[in-house]
Amino acid sequence: MGERLESEGSPADGAVAALPVDLGELERETLACTKCVLATSRTNVVFGVGDPEALLMFVGEGPGRDEDLAGEPFVGRSGALLDALMAEEIGTDRSRCYIANVVKCRPPSNRDPAREEIEACSPYLKAQVEIIAPRVIVTLGNFATRLLLKTNEGVTRLRGRSYPFGRAQLVPTYHPAAALRGGAGVLAEMRADFVRAKRLLLSK
Ligand code: SF4
After folding, report:
1. Could you report the per-residue pLDDT of 68-106, keeping only the tens digit for each?
2. Domain for residue 43, yes or no?
3. Which end of the chain is more exposed for a tag (fewer CB within 10 A), N or C?
4. CATH (domain of 59)
């Protein structure tokens, strides 16, 4: 067992006191996690995918049905839109980025993740961010944006600018599912946010 990373953990769970500093070890630990009720209904833990040394990281909400079955984040229609925006606005693809979620197991019936589930799971995301150390983090939707920016404000008000996040810059934008529902206006704003992320990547 290698070095471990101190984590805030969940107030109710001192067991997530230290997490591995190696991404592979962290993934192995997460795949066995039963720290919240979502463990009882998942098919797969959806840890995250991509380049462990990525400069650009995307953070979504949690796995849906397709992701739960595949064990990979952002597959299905939302994933196709995310891939298209990456390619068209940033000129990249998921093999060169890293994609993770706030919660790693699917909330049943695609309900919102509960506060205690987010608290239990967020140490894994924080550890992923620390290990990968991206330059730019794009949060997709309210859950990721609120968690990482520590705010109750919604993404509609927060998007349109970037925020310092440690040594990274954080760019909030909508979840792709919102763009699929919300039509051309939401999609245009998402495109602008992706362009903002690209400029930040190129500016360093
Ligand atoms: S959602 Fe996170 S905390 Fe809950 S069981 Fe899955 S990996 Fe563990």
Report:
1. 999 999 999 999 999 999 999 999 999 999 999 999 999
2. yes
3. N
4. 3.40.470.10
